[in-house]
UniProtKB/TrEMBL annotation:
May be a cell surface adhesion protein. One of its GO terms (cellular component) is extracellular region. PANTHER family: FASCICLIN-LIKE ARABINOGALACTAN PROTEIN 16. Residues 42-181, 264-407 form the FAS1 domain. Gene3D superfamilies: FAS1 domain (2.30.180.10). Keywords: Glycoprotein, Proteoglycan, Repeat, Secreted, Signal. Belongs to the fasciclin-like AGP family. This is Fasciclin-like arabinogalactan protein 16 isoform A. Pfam families: Fasciclin (PF02469). It comes from the Eukaryota. PROSITE patterns: FAS1 (PS50213). The lineage of its organism: Eukaryota, Viridiplantae, Streptophyta, Embryophyta, Tracheophyta. Residues 1-32 form the signal peptide. The keyword Cytoplasm does not apply.
């Protein structure tokens, strides 16, 4: 969305002098409120500098979020550090739908939380940057993860610092960052709002009928909004060469109560934002059949938990492991559980039962989970993985759990061991530009149509 749209929604034209004018008016108000501000804002303040800086998109959002008073109070009490996304991050790079959500007056809280999550209640200029990774409280309930890469590149959550100490003032500092940091609660508010809109748009209909002979729905009758589907998920899976035998296609229509496609898009988006899961996101974007299939299942009311291997895990996959036709899909289907599980539910289960096996979309293989080191460990032997980034995305239908390994069914591990020619070298592959899995898949059988061009 351009600045033009912005203005037309709010009828505000963004001009620096207006900004300053507003800012100097505010202290007058603050005395009628019960403000803790001890002094008038200084023209040398970091807040004045922000509103006058080249971070015009951020400055505009801060105003729209009605946060000036609160920030003024904050700098009255302590120094602050602002991580300012560059303009491009709030213009071109931001999902227009997400931006629209942020600007709706009823979502003011989300916008405020989002912005306050970019500000620390203390001054951390670059010469005070923590030597070790540090989780720091922000002015919202969220924490930011400050770190330095081995290359020296500094990061805050998934965003790189582009301009350290871009603005320095006696009461604070602004660092320019590459992208907006979206706190989980805000992402969840957004997802929830969308799903609510999708569900409430659906009219109630009669119960569906299953034909006992074909084991399919008699007619494309959607289940009531929110109700679980009638058929087991395996009946709903599209028949394909790589999946267990499925019955002939039935009359079930593609669109039901949930906008599964959008939810899948959301979670891929979340994965990309989260950082460290680009390979997985890449596969989902490019293996369109897989993403489409997941979207369809969710649309029909099924729920899914995706165990997403992180980039480091994906980089360890060998060409050997990908050499069979359809291997990328096979691997992916083995990482999808047809249940809705969160970190808490899985952890509680393994704590209570020791070992728990979950069905996967790759019949008949199951994935084993057990408690280990206070976390959940999946798989066995060579291919085991820990729950590494819990609850990356949870919207009630799709749950995404980050894991630190790629899982292989034990039966196949055995097979591989016996026929393996070269040892399973864990290659420390250089970070591939394009998803390695995709690259191999495309070079081997170029069967993904436009995806592999
Ligand atoms: C300011 O707040 C305190 C408690 O938070 C209250 O006791 C006091 O009456 C308030 N003063 C004004 C002027 O509202
Ligand atoms: C901000 O930090 C400076 C030192 O860098 C200090 O002199 C000043 O008192 C601090 N301001 C507040 C409001 O704590
Ligand atoms: C998907 O494939 C295209 C080329 O076919 C490539 O440009 C792109 O980087 C790949 N990944 C993503 C996430 O789009």
């Amino acid at each position: 969305m351009s600045a033009m749209d912005f203005s037309s929604i709010y009828g505000v034209s963004h001009k620096p002098f207006l900004t300053l004018f507003l800012l100097f008016l505010l202290p007058l108000h603050s005395h009628s409120h019960n403000s803790t501000t001890s002094a008038q804002i200084n023209s040398n303040s970091i807040l004045v500098a922000l509103l006058d800086s080249h971070y015009t998109e951020l400055a505009e959002l801060v105003e729209k979020a009605l946060l000036l008073q609160q920030l003024e109070d904050a700098v009255g009490n302590h120094n602050i550090t602002i991580f300012a996304p560059r303009n491009q991050a709030l213009e071109r790079d931001l999902d227009p739908e997400f931006k629209r959500f942020l600007l709706e007056p009823r979502n003011l809280r989300s916008l405020q939380t989002l912005l306050m999550s970019h500000i620390l209640p203390t001054r951390i200029a670059s010469h005070h940057w923590p030597a070790a990774d540090l989780l720091h409280r922000t002015l919202s309930d969220h924490h930011l993860h400050l770190a330095s890469k081995p290359s020296g590149q500094r990061t805050v959550d998934s965003a790189e610092i582009l301009r350290a100490d871009d603005v320095l003032r006696p009461d604070g500092v602004i660092h320019g960052i590459e992208r907006l940091i979206v706190p989980r609660s805000v992402q969840e508010d957004f997802n929830r709002r969308r799903n609510l809109a999708a569900i409430s748009a659906v009219l109630p209909e009669g119960a569906p009928e299953v034909d006992p002979r074909t084991h399919r729905l008699k007619k494309p009758a959607p289940v009531p909004a929110g109700a679980p589907p009638v058929l087991p998920i395996y009946d709903a899976l599209a028949p394909g060469p790589f999946i267990a035998p499925a019955p002939a296609p039935g009359p079930g229509g593609p669109k039901h109560h949930f906008n599964g496609e959008r939810q899948v898009k959301d979670f891929i988006h979340t994965l990309l934002h989260y950082g460290g899961y680009n390979e997985m996101a890449d596969i989902l974007v490019n293996l369109t059949s897989l993403a489409t299939e997941m979207g369809r299942l969710v649309s029909e009311g099924y729920v899914l938990t995706v165990l997403a291997p992180n980039d480091e895990a994906m980089a360890k996959l060998t060409t050997d492991q990908l050499s069979e036709p359809g291997a990328p899909e096979q691997i992916m289907y083995y990482h999808i559980i047809p249940e809705y599980q969160t970190e808490e539910s899985m952890y509680n289960a393994v704590r209570r039962f020791g070992k728990v096996s979950y069905d996967t979309l790759r019949l008949p293989h199951k994935v084993l989970a057990q408690e280990s080191d206070g976390s959940v460990k999946f798989g066995h032997g060579d291919s085991s993985a820990y729950l590494f980034d819990p609850d990356i995305y949870t919207d009630g239908r799709i749950s995404v759990q980050g894991i630190d390994g790629v899982l292989i069914p034990p039966e196949e591990e055995e097979e591989e061991r016996t026929r393996r020619i070269s040892p399973l070298v864990k290659v420390a592959a250089p970070k591939p530009r394009r998803g390695k899995l995709m690259e191999v898949a495309c070079s081997m059988f170029g069967s993904f149509g436009q995806v592999c061009q």
